[in-house]
Amino acid sequence: MKRLSLLFALVLLAWGALHAQVSLGGFLGLNGADYYGDSDYNDAYSPLLGFNCGGLIMYQLSDNLLVQPELYINTQGSSFDVTITDSWGNILEQHKASESLSYLKAAMSGKLNMNLGGIEIQPTLGLYGATLLGATAKYNSDYVEDQDLKAYLNSTDFGVIVGGDMILAKNLLAGMKIEAGMVNVWKENSALHINPSLKNLCVRFSVGYVLRDLKL
What we know:
elongated, 11 strands, Porin, 216 residues, 8-stranded antiparallel barrel, 7% helix, 66% strand
């Protein structure tokens, strides 16, 4: 699957190179992330704040249709309540902890382009593939050390993207996209987790700058 994705990306880039005009851009922003899934323990989790940062290429297929590949780093995961007690049951700490996951994502989206009063509105639908870069359970505790979770998580993710972008003053980009993973976050036989059916859910807010209609 990785080889097929790479081949597809190379073919698309080669296709774009044969055309006269493309647009290049960069973006960064914040994520609201959580898990979703068919699990009795899903209610134990709550949203976690993350960030995104990356680049994009816009290929114009027609006046109103664009194809946009993206490559970016996305941090997501979820937070949960932690209560730490001593051997007699006395509460030592009670606070929020988090499972912080970092992914390198490659996305491919189709976009409609509508010009409304000088603002370009671009509804977006696409797919992404992701590789896990790192994963840590952060307890923020004097009694429990943070834990590396990467060995217990699936190393790849795949999912759908729905949302949209706005382009203002021809170059300024603002967007909101929902990314829903289709692969379980936790490995089936994970020793640390009892709800392997949980999947990633991320709401990605980004701002950026686009260099339009470049000559190749």
